[in-house]
Structure formats: structure tokens, C-alpha cells
Amino acid sequence: MRHIPEEELHAYLDQALSRSQCVEIESHLAACPSCQAARDGIAALRDRTTALLARLAPPRNFPPSFDLLRSRAAVSADQRRRRVHRGAWAASLVAAVGLGWTANYLTSARLTTPTRIVHPVAVAANEPTPPTPATLTSHPVPVSSHRTRPANHPVARQVENPAQDSGSHRTAVPVVPAPVLQLSSIDIPRTDFEMELDGMWRTMSWDGAQAAAGDQLPHIDGLPVVQVQVQASEQGKVPLMVVAQQLASGQVIRTIEGPMNDVSHLLAKRTMTDPDPLAPGAKTNSKPADSAADDHTDRTMAMQRGDRMLVITGALPSDSLLAMIRRLNAEMRSK
Amino acid sequence: MDELEQLYQTTYTAVVRFLYRKVWDAERAEDLAQEVFVRALTHRPEKPRAWVFAVAANLARDEARAAVRRRRHLTLLKGDPVALPTIQPAADTLVEHDERMAAVQDALSTLTHRDREILLLWDAGLSYPEIAAQTGLAVGAVGTTLARARRRLVEAHDRQHAPQGDHAAHS
Predict the structure, then answer these.
(1) pLDDT tens sequence across B85-135
(2) CA distance B53 to chain A (A)
(3) Which of A2, A3, A30, A178 could form a disulfide with A124 if both were Cys (CB 3.0 to 4.6 A apart)?
(4) Same domain, B79 and B108
(5) Helices marked H in chain B
(6) Is the CB of A11 less than 8 angstroms away from the CB of B143?
């Protein structure tokens, strides 16, 4: 007599067999004590597995209304359309930048002196708007006037005489938007984040933000808060918040707290699109080995907290940011 | 009621649970589960139940990849215990419960990817033919795989952790 294989008993107990297969198995079981024992053993194993897996359940579960999902489906269809549009825009931007670099390369290739290294701050002081490729070619400057300039021409010299020097910048300064190296209470780039997120950001009062986020509002105790920005979020969730605070030196520190994905998305976006010091390109460009400049470079420190992320970004040394983020994290955990 | 809406009412919890066992983050599992149903609303699949779990499995896989990318991208504070990706239980959950859960989690992680997937799909309520369709396995092989996966899960669990608690529950 053929005994019932183990996997068939599993399938039998899982009710995955046809009626005729079940009849066959049941008639065998009735006459076979060893298969009965095997079946009982498998039934216990099955129950045990189910009981073990039942422990791996999420702590809570609030299904949103189906209508909410319907509206989200409509929104996501709309976003897909807009993504296509944005993709085309980005492609044209890449092309324009590429053209700028090429034009710039061709222009500077004609010059023989390696004197064109200019501090980005100096460029920022003279020219808030970076020159376009068209400007490059329309402002020819006599090459000979630059040949004699020493290679390590001090930055300050170029700031002294903007009228004369802005022309020289145009001929050879790499087309790199000047990083905003030092923030003040006036020029906090309000639109910095707002632009990136399609208007889903809003600026809140400190009290309003506290009401929304409670204890989880990220901030450094004792520093004046200059701005709180909040990203729109789904109902019932603590949203992504960005709190800007000012140090006595005038520098601004931003504390960011929000869902892991949203925060890393935001940081990735800033890194890719902003002409700010987070961008790797901005750091390497034409900065003299001047130590003071380093102190104005924004650094970012991130820490994962469960499914959320805490970030501090500011023009401070890494170890200061590290100490701050650790303390902040400990404070928020204890609340 | 819309067929999808009906499916949503009956399977949402199972989809969340299924995702939770892959991403180990309750809130994220819920987000992904909702995303699955949002996509189902856009695509209107023919066999929505199987489709929903197939998409959930894909999203969980993408999630794991994204986590790797994020780690690469950011200056996460290595060696700092609070900075490590953690499976944080809700604050009010009992420690004992956490330990019991971690024990099953450990045991589950010893299974092969395929065994684990099939066990989780079965536990989520999929039939043998549905599991077969999703995993590419023959229907006849689902029983074999499940038999092995169940045995290994329980063995791995009992090997690492004394099974007193469960014996009490089942005796």
C-alpha cells in the first residue's frame, strides 16, 4: 500500500486538492494509522507555522477610505502627465548647460594663461546672474591684457575693480552659478524648498507648527527660529518639517524631520539641482585653499529613526553637527 | 460595490501584513499597500487579487533597493547604534512581544527567498494556483515547497529559541 506523500497531506489540509483526490486520500487515511499520524503531525506543524507568522503582524492598521485612494489614483495620473512635461524641461536644461560649457571651453581654449580661477564669492558679488553663453561670445576682451597677469592673482584684486574685471570674468569664468555661501536672516532662500516640491510646501508660524507636530517638531533649543516650512502630508501623519534657525554668527541651520523617503528625496533633489554647497560640484569649483571658505560650506548630517529621518544641515564643522543631531535625536526619543 | 473596492475591504489587511513582513515597518507597509491599490485603480487588472500581491511583492523589492541607495547617498552615522536601520516596535509594545516577534523574524530569515515568498503568500490567503502563477512554480510544487518552508521555519525557530510559549498555546 502506497503511503500518502508529505506534500500531498499539506495540499490536502490546505484544501488545494480536487474532490476526487480528497476522496482517495480520505479512504486511505481511514485504513492507515501511520498516515493518520503523519496527517496529525502536519496539521500541528501547519497550525504552529500560522501561529508563529501571526506574531509578525503590524501593530496597527487603519485602512483609509477607498474614495481617498480613488482620488489619489486621479492625482497620480495627473502627476505622470506632469512628469513627462518636466522631463522635457530637464532635458532642455541639460542641453543648455552643456552648450554653455562647450562655448566656455572653446573661448577659454583660445587664452593661454591659466589665470581664470576666480573665487565664486567674487563672482557672486559682481554678477548675481551667471553669464549666458550668448554673453560670452558678445564680449570679446583683448587677450593680451590678461596674458601678463600672474597665475595666482589674488581674488581681492578682482573685487576691487568690478567694471574692468567683470569683463574678464565673462571671457573665462566657468559657467557655474555662484554658491550662496553665507546665509543671513534676509536672504534665507525662502523658495529654496518650495520650488522643488510643486508648491506643496507652506510656511507656518512657530505656534502653528508646534500644534501640528507637537514634541516632534525638530529644532535646537535656544536658537531663534527664522522659518518653519511644512510639506503637505496625508491625514494623520506628522508631516515633513524644515525648521530654519539662526546662530549668533548669522548663519542658518536647518533641521529637517519627516518620513524617511520624503526626506531623502528632498536631500537628493537639493544635491542634484541646487547651486548650493551641498552640491559636490560647488565645492570643487575654483575655491582657493583659503581656510575661511571651508567654514561657510554647508554640511549635512542625517540619522534614521525608524521609518523617519532626522537631518541637520548648516555651515558648521561635521563634529558640531554630529553632536547636535545626536542630542536632538536623544531629546526627541525621550519625548 | 466596485470589484476592486470589495477586494480592498477583504484583502487590505492581508496586503499590509504581507508587506510588513518584507519591509518591517508598519507605516511603510501601509503606504505601500495603499500605493498597490491606487495602482490597481489605474490599471484595472483582470485578476486583481493575484495582481495586488504581485505588485506588493515588487514594491517591497524596490523598497529594499531604494534603502540600499539611500544608505549610499547619505552620511549615515555608521557605528552609532541609534543611526542603524532598526525594526522599531511601537513604543507601547511589550518587550516580551518584541522578543517573540524577533525570534520568528530570525527564523523566517533563514529560509530561502523562494520558500519564504511562498509561505508568506500562502499566509496572505492566496490559493495554490495563485501562488503558482505569481512565482512561476508548478501548482504541484507549491505543496512541496510549503511543506519544506513550514518545517524549516519551525525548526529554525525552535533551534534558536526555546519553544515553551508556543507549546503552551497549542497543547
Answers:
(1) 334 444 444 456 677 888 898 999 999 999 999 999 999 999 999 999 989
(2) 17
(3) A178
(4) no
(5) 3-23, 26-43, 48-73, 95-109, 113-123, 128-135, 139-160, 164-170
(6) yes
